[in-house]
Specification:
Blueprint (H helix, E strand, L loop, with lengths): L1 H27 L14 E8 L5 H17 L1 H6 L2 E7 L7 H5 L7 E8 L2 E7 L3 H4 L3 H16 L3
Parallel strand pairs: 1-2
Antiparallel strand pairs: 1-3, 3-4
Helix pairs in contact: 2-6
Amino acid sequence: MKAKTIATVMLSLFVAVSVVVMVAKELHAPASTGAPIANVPHQVIVYYFHGMMRCDACRRIEAYTKKALDSAFAPALADGRLEWRVVNRDEPAHEHFASDYKLKTQSAVVIADYRYGRQTAWKELESVANLVDDEAAFVSYVQLETRVLLETP
């Protein structure tokens, strides 16, 4: 009987720890695919789309885009008016983005404008691939395009 009690306690502990781990992962997961905030009058989301296989240029596109946002829009990122999302478009739940945004390449940056949770405009930053070898020009381009949507009344 003692072995059965120990086995039951161990199994219960395993289940409890598993639940705690799942909840912790959910709480600390990046908001890379969540819905826009419906009660916010204006929000801009900058998406970086990538696939399972990522080249050096793809990784630089992600890093330079993040740098562009962090260095110019820290207050907007902090208060939620601007959001940065990295999305693996090869995952089944994200496959729709390719047709939603008419993406032609595996690695892409899209800026989407939302009003009260509804997308009103979007733009793919097609020049990022051409600027990947010029970090300063890349960062400036992303900041300019983001500012246009972020500051649109």
